[in-house]
Write a structure and sequence with these properties.
The chain is mainly alpha-helical. The protein has helices spanning about 10-20, 65-80.
């Protein structure tokens, strides 16, 4: 039997630290943390896929920069 102790956190940073310390596993979006996880944490795909909506927040009264437009196009292409 497994000894279960539930831990909760509101941030991906805390969740990844729980994993790093061997407390358990976490289900999170690794995108914002991919470079910070280090070698002591392994990222594995979760199956089955979880559908979620991605949104971009942009200022209403200003045009997107070329970099922002390129990033949005890249993300949209990767999701197709």
């Amino acid at each position: 039997m497994f000894d279960t102790l539930e831990r909760e956190t509101a941030t991906a940073v805390s969740a990844s630290e729980f994993v790093r310390e061997g407390i358990g596993v976490a289900l999170l979006n690794p995108f914002p943390m991919a470079e910070q996880l280090g070698r002591s944490v392994v990222v594995r795909p979760f199956q089955p896929s979880i559908a979620y909506r991605t949104s971009f927040l942009m200022p209403a009264r200003a045009a997107n920069s070329a970099s922002a437009a390129a990033f949005i196009a890249h993300v949209r292409a990767s999701l197709e």
